[in-house]
Structures are given as C-alpha cells and as structure tokens.
C-alpha cells in the first residue's frame, strides 16, 4: 500500500508511458538506440541483414506513398475528363490545362522513385498508381483521337525524364478500367445529347464510329487474349462485359425512343461547357 | 461519307503485344512448373532422409548425412541451376513466388545437414555446429545471392532467414531426441547455438509479414530446448555441471 502511494506521488507531472523499475524509479531508456547485445559470432551477419531489410521496408514505404498520390491525381484527371462532351476533338482548354498540371505533378512524383523501381525492383514492389495513370492517360487519348492508346504511346506519355517501365500488366489492367470510364462518358453524353457519342457527332450522327462500337471492339480483344497475370483478370473481365452491355442498352434506347424528343434536350444541363462563350 | 476506317479503334499492334505477352507467360509458367515439380520431389526426398536424424545416434550420423547430400541435396542443386538459367531470362520478382518456398526448403535442409557435420568440402571439412552462411549457400548452389544490381536468379536474404527458422525448429526437436538417444552433449550444444541465433533474430526490425511470423516462432523453439535443459539440469544430467550443487 505504502509503495503504491509513493508511486503515485512521484513525478506525477510526468507524461504517461514512463518505464519504471520495481521501486518506482524511472528507467533510462534510449529510444532509437539499439539494445545492448552480447555479441556472438552471428551478430555481424544479422546486423547486415537488418540493414538490408530496413532499406527494403523504407523503399516499399516510399514507393507506396508515391503510388497512392499518383492514384489520387490520376482520379482527379479522370473526373475532369468526364466533363468533356465531345469525342475525337481537342479537349477544351479549361480542362486540358488542369490535366496538364496534374500530369506534371504525377511525373514529378514518379521521378523521385526512379532508382527505387529500377531494374529488378520494378516487379518487387507493387505500384497500383501506374495502372490508374494508364487509365487517365488512355481516357484522354481516347477522347481526343477516338483510338486506343498503344503500349508504346503509353510509355512515351511518361517521358524520358521518368524512365519507369510500364509493364504489360499495368497497361492492360489500366485499359480494363478505361472501359468503365468510356461507359460513364457514353451514358452521360447520350443522356444529354440524345445520341450515342461518335467521332462525327453533330449533323451526321450515324456516320462515324460510335463509342459503343469502340467499347465492343475493346471488350472483344480483351476477351480473346489469354489472361496476363495481375490482380483479378476474371473479375475485371466480368465487370467490363457488364459495362458494355449497359452501353448497348443505352444505344438501343436512343435508337428506339431517340426520335421521340428533339436532340439537344438536356444540353442546358451540360456542365462541361459551362459559361464558355461560343467563340466561333 | 468517308468512313474513318483509316483510324480504327485498335491498332493491330496492341493485339499482338497482348497476345504475345500472355502466351509467353503461359510458356514460362509451364516450364517453371516442370522444373519446380522435379525440384520439389528432390527436396521431399532430402527432407525424408533428413527426418532420420531424430533416430540416428551421433556415432552413425555421417553415413546418413552423406546419403542426404548424395541422394537429396545434389540432385536438387542441379535442378536449382536449371531453374536459375531459365528464370534469369525473365524479371526475377515477376516469378519468384513460384520457387521461393522450394529454395527456402532446400536451404533449410542444407543448413541442418551442415550443422550436424555434413556439407564438407575439400577446403573446409564438415564439423558439428557449423552454420552455413548465405555466401556459402550461394557457392554450393552456384547461384548469386542477394542481387540488387542485376535482374537474375538468386537466393534472397529473406529465403535464407526463413530457412534459419526452419533450422532452429528442426534442432529444437533434435534437442529432445538426442537426450533419448543418450547424447546430452549435443542437446547442450543445440541450446547454446539456438540462443545465439535467437539473439541475432532479435536484431531484425520486422514488419507484419511472413518473416515476422516465422521469426516470432523461434522463441518457442528456444523454449522447447530450454525445457529439455531444465529437465536435465534438475537431475544433474548435464555433463560438466554434475556435483556443482
């Protein structure tokens, strides 16, 4: 009892977490300092292992952080791109400048880990941010050119300053995600314009390739090629097929009912061209 | 109206790119499966022979170790070399999970065999209590270790550390059985060795991964041996300490 009382009165202005010996005196601790070890013939070996493992963990942490930031920035690019309303045309200035800024940030972030993912380390650490970046870049590329970006173009998008390999898996899983963005774009623009987006949107809506056809073609390709190992090929494939089906229903809908209301209804809700005065 | 078929959605090169990568992957996996199936069989054989250490008295251990080396380890080493040659053509970390466990198991067999006095070479005869270092493992397997500067097959530090936890587990079992077989000196030797390794393991800063789980288990190996030592010392059965009380 007496000892307990002493324990409470001593140094009671101290923060919690002070280690004490059995008499209640605080113990000296040197946080961060290695414990005093009795060295034996294996100590050196374990110390060198410790250094290697520490480097490995630090590197993984650093890469993980950059990857998360790249993911967040890529998602913002994708959100911006979903405000575009026209296919196969240059992206409007206000959106493209925003995208450029974020792309620059992504490249700067990736430039800080070039050495950490060089050579054999590229496959050692997971970097899901790259896949997300492929999704963003391929979506911009599709909206502007109405074509699927090639692996070479994708690698080139990263630039010579960021020599990080975009693996076949990064590429193809990014393209799986692209189909989701294409679906979102297709349904939104069709709802607003009353026609399935195509390269010849406007006066002759039926004349160019539609986004539905592009989706169908992409989906077929990804069903034909054998799986490339990565995270969840099967699931992504199933989701993609569902997305294409959804756009097919939208396409059917506008064909059957599209003429029942004038095209252009809904343009008032178009947020993509907000307050931009018509310049031409 | 002119169709824009000149710019199709998908460049045929994309198709070829994906097709060839997927097919290459299938081929690589098939070949790896072939090699590792043989390797795992050889390792199982080695592990099977190795299990006899628990019923083989120290005096008769050498022929057994020779057999483990000749019929288990040696064939596995040639498989490892085949694996190394093939796997070095592809990114190491893309496929290493296909063989990492096998490498760990083989290294563990080598560690135990060497510790008991096997795995001797002309330059260095085998002796009881010897821990094969990772560098020696690399020399015996004739593959690099812990590569950081080039993308080739190698034995990683992680695989070696995991194999050391297999060694402490195996020796903790042997500590008990060697008492049964009447070789208490061996038990004492195991005890001091395991404690040294345990002190080493405690130097590692581990994250929540397989390495941590395995290294955490080492304390149970230590405890198992301690219990045996306790039983012995209680009854004054440890040579050299008799009569000290």
From TrEMBL, chain A:
Residues 16-29 have a biased composition (Basic and acidic residues). It comes from Apiospora kogelbergensis. It comes from the Eukaryota. It is found in: Cytoplasm; Nucleus. SUPFAM superfamilies: Translin (SSF74784). Pfam families: Translin. Belongs to the translin family. CDD domains: TRAX (cd14820). GO terms for molecular function: sequence-specific DNA binding. Gene3D superfamilies: Translin, domain 1 (1.20.58.190), Translin, domain 2 (1.20.58.200). Keywords: Cytoplasm, Nucleus. Residues 1-32 are annotated as: Disordered. This is Translin-associated X.
Automatic annotation (TrEMBL), chain B:
CDD domains: Translin (cd14819). Keywords: Cytoplasm, DNA-binding, Nucleus, RNA-binding. InterPro entries: Translin, Translin_C, Translin_fam, Translin_N, Translin_sf. It is found in: Cytoplasm; Nucleus. This is Translin. GO terms for biological process: RNA metabolic process. It comes from Apiospora kogelbergensis. Belongs to the translin family. GO terms for cellular component: cytoplasm; nucleus. Pfam families: Translin (PF01997). Signal peptide: none annotated. GO terms for molecular function: RNA binding; sequence-specific DNA binding; single-stranded DNA binding.
């Amino acid at each position: 009892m007496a000892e307990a009382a002493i324990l409470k009165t001593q140094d009671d202005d101290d923060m919690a977490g002070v280690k004490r010996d059995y008499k209640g005196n605080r113990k000296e601790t040197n946080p961060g300092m290695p414990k005093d070890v009795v060295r034996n013939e294996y100590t050196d070996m374990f110390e060198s292992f410790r250094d290697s493992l520490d480097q490995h963990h630090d590197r993984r942490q650093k890469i993980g952080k950059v990857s998360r930031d790249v993911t967040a920035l890529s998602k913002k690019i994708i959100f911006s791109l979903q405000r575009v309303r026209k296919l196969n045309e240059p992206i409007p200035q206000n959106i493209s400048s925003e995208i450029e800024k974020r792309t620059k940030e992504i490249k700067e972030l990736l430039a800080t880990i070039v050495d950490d993912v060089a050579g054999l380390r590229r496959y050692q650490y997971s970097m899901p941010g790259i896949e997300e970046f492929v999704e963003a870049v391929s979506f911009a590329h599709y909206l502007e050119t109405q074509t699927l970006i090639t692996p070479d173009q994708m690698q080139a998008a990263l630039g010579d300053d960021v020599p990080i390999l975009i693996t076949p898996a990064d590429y193809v899983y990014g393209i799986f995600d692209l189909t989701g963005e294409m679906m979102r774009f297709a349904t939104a623009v069709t709802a607003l314009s009353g026609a399935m987006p195509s390269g010849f949107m406007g006066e002759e809506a039926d004349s160019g390739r539609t986004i539905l056809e592009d989706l169908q073609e992409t989906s077929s390709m990804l069903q034909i090629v054998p799986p490339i190992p990565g995270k969840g090929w099967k699931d992504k494939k199933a989701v993609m097929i569902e997305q294409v089906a959804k756009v097919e229903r939208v396409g059917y809908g506008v064909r059957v009912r599209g003429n029942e209301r004038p095209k252009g209804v809904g343009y008032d809700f178009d947020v993509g061209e907000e307050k931009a005065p018509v310049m031409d | 109206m002119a169709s824009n078929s000149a710019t199709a959605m998908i460049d045929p090169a994309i198709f070829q790119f994906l097709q060839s990568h997927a097919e290459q992957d299938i081929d690589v996996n098939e070949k790896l499966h072939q090699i590792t199936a043989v390797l795992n069989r050889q390792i199982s054989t080695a592990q099977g022979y190795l299990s006899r250490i628990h019923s083989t008295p120290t005096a008769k251990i050498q022929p057994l170790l020779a057999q483990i080396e000749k019929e288990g380890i040696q064939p596995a080493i040639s498989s490892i070399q085949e694996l190394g040659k093939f796997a070095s053509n592809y990114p190491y970390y893309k496929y290493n999970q296909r063989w990492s466990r096998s490498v760990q198991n083989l290294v563990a067999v080598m560690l135990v065999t060497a510790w008991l006095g096997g795995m001797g070479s002309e330059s260095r005869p085998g002796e009881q209590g010897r821990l094969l270092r990772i560098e020696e493992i690399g020399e015996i397997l004739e593959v690099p270790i812990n590569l950081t500067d080039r993308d080739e097959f190698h034995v990683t530090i992680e695989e070696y550390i995991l194999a050391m936890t297999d060694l402490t587990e195996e020796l903790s079992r042997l500590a008990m059985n060697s008492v049964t077989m009447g070789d208490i000196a061996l038990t004492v030797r195991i005890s001091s060795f395991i404690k040294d390794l345990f002190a080493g393991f405690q130097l590692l800063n581990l994250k929540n991964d397989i390495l941590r789980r395995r290294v955490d288990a080492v304390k149970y190996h230590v405890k198992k041996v301690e219990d045996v030592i306790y039983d012995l010392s209680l009854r004054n059965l440890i040579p050299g300490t008799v009569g000290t009380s």
